C-alpha cells in the first residue's frame, strides 16, 4: 500500500487500486475471454437501459461536439489564465502606486503599466464575449446534454464575474493613485511655501502635473517663466530680484497650481461619482449571487418533481382507464 | 495552537476540490480547471454547513449533483466524487464510468474504503473497459459534520436506542461501536492529534475507548501515518484529552427544557445543520442560516431568552442611529453650490455612505432574522408555557423534589404531550426516592392527557436498576450547596430555596464538572477511577497510570455517545471561558437530539421492553 508522506489527513489509494486492477486484468485474460462481455451486465447496475443506448449514441455522437467542447475549454482556460496574469500585474501596479514618495515618482512605469492593463482588460472582455457566442451557438445546436449547457453557462458567468472584479480592482488602484498624488501635492505646497529652501523646487513640483492631461497645459508656460526670469543675474540687486522673482515664481506657480488643483479636484470628483454609480450597479447585479447553500434548492425541486410525478400519474390513470 | 475543527475540515474540503493538490496562498485553484462535484446524501450534509455555492465557484466547481440523480454527460470535464464507501455508491460510480459521463473521475471516499469494495470497483470498471477514466482514489477521513468551530456530530442515528436495546446482540453492538470509532478516528485525523483518552468504567464509553486506542495504535505502527505532526515524545501539555461519555452518565440534560437561546431554537424550532425554517412575519416559510458567520448568534447564543430580546432591541436601536447618521450626512445637501471643497467633502461622504451600505444592509438582515425567530419563539413559549417548565424543572433538579400539587398542576396545564412527558420524566429523575403513590398519580395524569407513557416506564425501570442517575444528580446538588454555604454561611434550606434565582442558568452539569476535573488533573475521587489510554505510549507501559495521563491539559475533546444537545455545548463553552487561563473545548456527539427526539427513543426502548401503556386497551 502506498501512503502519502506529507502531513495530510487523507490517503491516496490510487496505487492500490491500480495494482488490484492489474491483478484482475491478468486473471481475466488468463481465463476465457467470454468473461469480458459479461462484465457490464453482471455489475448490477440499476440502470440497465443506460448502457446500451449510450454505446450507440457514443458512436453517433459527432466528433464535432467533442471538438467544440474542447475548443470551449481551451478558450476558457486561456481567458482564465489571462485574468490571473492581469490581476498579478494589477497587484504590481498597486504596490508601485502605494510606495511613491514625494520626490521619486515612477510616473513612466505607472503610465506604462496602466495602459498595458487597460489593453489586457479590453482584450479579455472581447474574448469573453466571443466565448459566450460559442457556447450559445453550441447549446442551440442541440447536440449536447442539458448538464453541458449549464456547465458552459456557469463557466462563462464565472469568467465574467472575475473580469468584473479585476476591473473594479483596477479602478480602485487608479483612485488610490489620484489620492496619493493629491497628498503629494499638498506636501509639496508645504515645502514650496518657504521659498528659500530649494530653487529647483518649482521644476520638481511640475512633474506630477505631467501625468494629468488637464494640468499639462499649465506645465508649458511655467518653465519658460521660471527659466526666463532666472537667466539674467547680477549679484545684489539680482539676489533681491531673484528673491522677488522667486517669490513671483512661486506666485505664478501658485496661481497655476491652484488652477491645476481645481481641475484635478473636479476630475477626481467625477471619478469618484462614477465609482459610486458603478458600485451601485454592482450591488444591484450581485443580488443574484446570494449565499445559497448546496442543499437549498433540493427541497423545492423535490417538491416540484413529486408534484409533476403525481400529475403525470394521474394523467396516465385517466388515459389508461379509457 | 487551538484546534479549530471547522477550519480544518473546510481546508481539507478545499484541497479535495483542488483535486488534492496543495492550494496556493490565495486559496483559489492553481490550475484553471473547471470541475463537477458529485456527492451522496450523507456527504451533502457534511458539505452544506461548510461551503456555500459562492465558495464552490471560487474553487472552480461549476455544477454539483447528488449521485442518485439522473445526470447527463459533460465531456471533457473532470468530476470530483465525494461519497461514502458503500456498495450502492460504488455501483453508481461504475455505471457513470461506463457511460463516460465525464472525462476523468477523482474519487474521494469520506472514510477508508474497505478492500473488498475497492476490488469491486476495479472489477466493475475493468469489465466496462472504463478503468482509464478513474484517475485517482482517495480516502479523505472526513466522515463527520462540523456545525461550529467547536461542535461536531457523527450523524449516526438512533445510537442510544441501538446501544440500550435489550434485544441487541453482540454483533450489532460491535458494529455500532466500530462505526463510532471510525467517526472519531476521522475527527482525530483531520485535527492531526493523538489525544490521551479518558473514560468512565463500563458501558459503551469503555468499549469505544478501548477500540479507538487499538485503532490508533495499529495506525501509528505503519510507517507514514496521518499523525506525523508532533514528535513521539511531545509532552502531554500539547496533546488534548479526549473524554468519552455515555448518555446514561447524565440523562436529564437530554430531556429537560432549557431557556437559553440556542437550545430553545434547536428544541422548539428544529434547527438542522445550521438551517432553520420558520413562519415569516408576512406569512410563508422563511429559511435562515445560523452559523459562525452570524455574529449575533455567536455572541448571544448562550443567553437566556429575555436577555436575547433585549439584545435585539439594542442592536436595532444602534442600527437606526447609524442609518440616521448616514442620511444626515449625505441627504439634504442637494442645494449646495458648486464650491470645490464642498463638493469634495460631499462626495467623500457619499462614497463612505455607499461603501457602508452593504454592511448596513447585512446588519439589518441579521436583526430582522433574529427578530423573526424571537417572535416565533415567543409565540411558542407563551402557548406551551415553556418558561414555567424550564423553571420548575430546574427547581426540581436543585431541590430534589416538587410539591405534589404543583406537579399535577403542571401535568394538567398547558403544553404539548411531549412537554408533559418530559416533565414527568424529569420529576422521576430528580426525586431522590420514588414515592409509589405519587408516581401513580403522575401516571394517571399522563394517561388523562393521552400521553404514551412507555418512556416514563422505561426510565422508572432504569432508575430502579441503576444508581448512577441519582448519584450524578445529588452530586450536582451538593456541589451547589457547598458553594452556597461557602459564600453565604447560611442554613442550607434557606439557601437552596432562594438560590434558584442566582443559579437559573449556572447549575453546573455533571458533565461539565467531570470535564473540568479531567482537564485540571487534580486528584479527584470521581475521576481517578476513570480509565486512561495513551495510544502513543508503548504497550507495556500503558498498564501503569503515568502522571502524563493525568496532568493538566490545555485542550479537551468531549464526546457523548448516544446523543447530545446544545445545552451541553453551551455549558462546556462557558466552562472553557471561565477557566484561568481560558481553555479550549471541542464538543462532539453521535447526533444532535432535541428533547423530543430523545424521548421518542426512550419510548421505543420502553416498548421494546414491553413496558407500553399499562392498562391500556391495546394488548402487548
UniProtKB/TrEMBL annotation, chain A:
InterPro entries tied to this protein: SNARE, Syntaxin, Syntaxin-5_N, Syntaxin/epimorphin_CS, T_SNARE_dom
Subcellular location: Membrane
CDD domains xrefs: SNARE_syntaxin5
Membrane topology: Single-pass type IV membrane protein
Main subcellular location: membrane
Compositionally biased residues, Low complexity: 27-57, 236-251
Alphabetized Pfam families for the sequence: Syntaxin-5_N
Record key words, sorted: Coiled coil, Membrane, Protein transport, Transmembrane, Transmembrane helix, Transport
Single GO term (MF): SNARE binding
UniProt biased composition (Basic and acidic residues): 10-25
Positions of the T-SNARE coiled-coil homology domain: 253-315
PROSITE patterns: SYNTAXIN (PS00914), T_SNARE (PS50192)
Keyword Coiled coil in record: yes
Any one GO CC term of the record: Golgi membrane
Ranges where the record places region Disordered: 1-64, 210-251
BP GO annotations: endoplasmic reticulum to Golgi vesicle-mediated transport; intracellular protein transport; vesicle docking; vesicle fusion
Family (UniProt): Belongs to the syntaxin family.
Protein name, as recorded: t-SNARE coiled-coil homology domain-containing protein
Lineage: Eukaryota, Viridiplantae, Streptophyta, Embryophyta, Tracheophyta
TrEMBL record, chain B:
Superkingdom: Eukaryota
Xref: InterPro entries: Sec-1-like_dom1, Sec-1-like_dom3a, Sec1-like, Sec1-like_dom2, Sec1-like_sf
Alphabetical GO biological process terms: vesicle-mediated transport
SUPFAM superfamilies associated with the record: Sec1/munc18-like (SM) proteins (SSF56815)
Family that this chain belongs to: Belongs to the STXBP/unc-18/SEC1 family.
This protein's name: SEC1 family transport protein SLY1
Organism of this sequence: Trifolium subterraneum (Subterranean clover)
Amino acid at each position: 500500500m502506498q501512503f502519502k508522506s506529507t502531513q495530510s489527513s487523507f490517503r491516496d489509494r490510487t496505487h492500490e487500486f491500480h495494482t488490484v486492477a492489474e491483478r484482475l486484468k491478468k486473471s481475466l485474460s488468463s481465463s476465457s475471454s467470454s468473461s469480458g462481455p459479461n462484465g457490464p451486465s453482471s455489475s448490477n447496475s440499476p440502470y440497465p437501459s443506460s448502457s446500451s443506448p449510450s454505446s450507440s449514441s457514443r458512436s453517433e455522437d459527432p466528433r464535432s461536439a467533442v471538438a467544440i467542447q474542447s475548443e470551449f475549454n481551451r478558450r476558457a482556460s486561456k481567458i482564465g489564465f489571462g485574468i490571473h496574469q492581469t490581476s498579478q500585474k494589477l497587484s504590481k501596479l498597486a504596490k508601485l502606486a502605494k510606495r511613491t514618495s514625494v520626490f521619486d515618482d515612477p510616473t513612466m512605469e505607472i503610465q506604462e503599466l496602466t495602459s498595458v492593463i487597460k489593453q489586457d482588460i479590453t482584450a479579455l472582455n472581447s474574448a469573453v464575449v466571443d466565448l459566450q457566442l460559442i457556447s450559445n451557438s453550441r447549446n442551440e445546436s442541440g447536440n449536447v446534454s442539458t448538464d453541458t449547457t449549464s456547465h458552459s453557462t456557469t463557466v462563462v458567468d464565472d469568467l465574467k464575474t472575475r473580469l468584473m472584479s479585476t476591473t473594479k480592482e483596477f479602478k480602485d488602484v487608479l483612485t488610490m493613485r489620484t489620492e496619493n498624488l493629491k497628498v503629494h501635492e499638498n506636501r509639496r505646497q508645504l515645502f514650496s511655501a518657504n521659498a528659500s529652501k530649494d530653487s529647483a523646487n518649482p521644476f520638481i513640483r511640475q512633474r506630477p502635473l505631467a501625468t494629468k492631461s488637464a494640468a499639462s497645459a499649465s506645465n508649458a508656460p511655467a518653465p519658460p517663466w521660471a527659466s526666463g526670469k532666472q537667466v539674467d543675474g547680477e549679484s545684489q540687486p539680482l539676489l533681491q530680484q531673484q528673491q522677488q522673482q522667486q517669490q513671483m515664481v512661486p506666485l505664478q506657480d501658485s496661481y497655476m497650481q491652484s488652477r491645476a488643483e481645481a481641475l484635478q479636484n473636479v476630475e477626481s470628483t467625477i471619478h469618484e461619482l462614477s465609482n459610486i454609480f458603478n458600485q451601485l450597479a454592482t450591488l444591484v447585479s450581485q443580488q443574484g449571487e446570494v449565499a445559497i447553500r448546496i442543499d437549498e434548492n433540493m427541497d423545492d425541486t423535490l417538491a416540484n418533481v413529486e408534484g409533476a410525478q403525481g400529475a403525470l400519474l394521474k394523467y396516465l390513470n385517466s388515459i389508461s382507464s379509457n | 495552537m487551538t484546534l479549530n475543527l471547522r477550519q480544518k475540515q473546510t481546508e481539507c474540503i478545499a484541497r479535495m476540490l483542488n483535486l488534492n493538490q496543495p492550494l496556493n496562498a490565495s486559496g483559489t485553484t492553481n490550475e484553471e480547471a473547471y470541475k463537477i462535484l458529485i456527492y451522496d446524501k450523507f456527504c451533502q450534509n457534511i458539505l452544506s454547513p461548510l461551503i456555500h455555492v459562492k465558495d464552490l465557484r471560487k474553487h472552480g466547481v461549476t455544477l454539483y449533483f447528488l449521485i442518485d440523480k439522473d445526470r447527463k454527460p459533460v465531456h471533457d470535464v473532470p468530476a470530483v466524487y465525494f461519497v461514502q464507501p458503500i456498495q450502492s455508491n460504488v455501483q453508481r460510480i461504475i455505471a457513470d464510468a461506463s457511460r463516460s459521463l465525464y472525462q476523468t473521475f477523482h474519487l474521494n471516499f469520506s472514510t477508508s474504503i474497505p478492500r473488498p469494495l475497492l476490488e469491486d470497483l476495479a472489477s466493475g470498471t475493468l469489465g466496462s473497459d472504463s478503468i482509464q477514466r478513474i484517475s485517482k482514489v482517495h480516502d479523505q477521513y472526513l466522515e463527520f459534520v462540523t456545525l461550529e468551530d467547536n461542535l461536531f456530530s457523527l450523524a449516526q442515528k438512533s445510537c442510544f436506542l441501538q446501544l440500550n436495546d435489550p434485544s441487541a446482540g453482540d454483533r450489532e453492538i460491535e458494529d455500532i461501536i466500530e462505526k463510532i470509532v471510525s467517526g472519531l478516528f476521522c475527527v482525530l485525523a483531520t485535527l492531526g492529534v493523538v489525544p490521551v483518552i479518558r473514560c468512565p468504567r463500563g458501558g459503551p464509553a469503555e468499549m469505544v475507548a478501548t477500540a479507538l486506542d487499538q485503532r490508533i495504535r495499529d495506525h501509528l505502527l505503519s510507517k507514514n501515518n496521518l499523525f506525523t505532526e508532533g514528535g513521539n515524545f511531545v509532552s502531554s501539555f500539547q496533546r488534548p484529552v479526549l473524554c468519552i461519555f455515555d448518555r446514561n452518565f447524565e440523562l436529564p440534560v437530554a430531556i429537560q427544557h432549557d431557556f437559553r437561546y440556542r437550545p430553545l431554537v434547536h428544541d422548539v424550532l428544529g434547527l438542522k445543520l445550521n438551517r432553520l425554517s420558520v413562519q415569516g412575519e408576512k406569512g410563508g416559510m422563511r429559511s435562515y442560516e445560523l452559523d459562525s458567520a452570524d455574529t449575533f448568534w455567536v455572541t448571544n447564543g448562550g443567553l437566556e431568552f429575555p436577555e436575547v430580546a433585549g439584545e435585539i432591541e439594542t442592536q436595532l436601536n444602534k442600527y437606526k442611529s447609524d442609518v440616521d447618521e448616514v442620511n444626515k450626512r449625505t441627504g439634504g445637501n442637494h442645494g449646495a453650490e458648486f464650491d470645490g471643497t464642498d463638493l469634495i467633502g460631499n462626495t467623500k461622504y457619499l462614497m463612505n455612505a455607499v461603501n457602508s451600505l452593504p454592511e448596513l444592509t447585512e446588519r439589518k438582515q441579521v436583526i430582522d432574522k433574529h427578530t423573526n425567530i424571537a417572535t416565533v419563539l415567543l409565540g411558542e413559549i407563551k402557548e406551551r408555557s415553556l418558561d414555567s417548565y424550564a423553571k420548575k424543572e430546574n427547581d426540581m433538579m436543585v431541590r430534589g423534589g416538587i410539591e405534589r400539587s404543583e406537579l399535577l398542576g403542571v401535568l394538567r396545564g398547558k403544553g404539548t404531550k411531549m412537554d408533559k412527558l418530559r416533565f414527568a420524566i424529569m420529576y422521576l429523575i430528580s426525586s431522590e426516592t420514588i414515592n409509589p403513590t405519587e408516581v401513580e398519580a403522575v401516571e394517571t395524569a399522563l394517561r388523562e392527557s393521552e400521553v404514551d407513557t412507555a418512556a416514563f416506564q422505561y426510565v422508572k425501570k432504569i432508575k430502579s436498576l441503576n444508581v448512577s442517575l441519582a448519584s450524578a444528580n445529588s452530586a450536582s446538588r451538593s456541589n451547589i450547596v457547598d458553594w452556597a454555604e461557602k459564600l453565604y454561611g447560611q442554613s442550607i434550606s434557606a439557601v437552596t430555596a432562594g438560590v434558584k434565582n442566582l443559579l437559573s442558568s449556572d447549575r453546573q452539569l455533571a458533565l461539565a464538572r467531570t470535564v473540568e476535573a479531567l482537564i485540571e488533573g487534580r486528584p479527584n475521587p470521581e475521576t481517578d477511577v476513570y480509565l486512561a489510554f495513551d495510544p502513543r505510549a508503548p504497550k507495556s507501559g500503558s498498564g501503569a497510570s503515568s502522571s502524563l495521563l493525568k496532568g493538566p491539559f490545555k485542550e479537551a475533546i468531549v464526546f457523548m455517545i448516544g446523543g447530545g444537545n446544545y445545552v451541553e455545548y453551551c455549558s462546556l463553552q462557558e466552562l472553557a471561558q471561565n477557566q484561568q487561563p481560558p481553555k479550549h473545548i471541542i464538543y462532539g456527539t453521535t447526533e444532535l437530539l432535541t428533547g423530543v427526539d430523545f424521548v421518542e427513543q426512550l419510548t421505543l426502548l420502553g416498548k421494546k421492553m414491553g413496558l407500553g401503556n399499562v392498562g391500556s386497551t391495546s394488548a402487548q
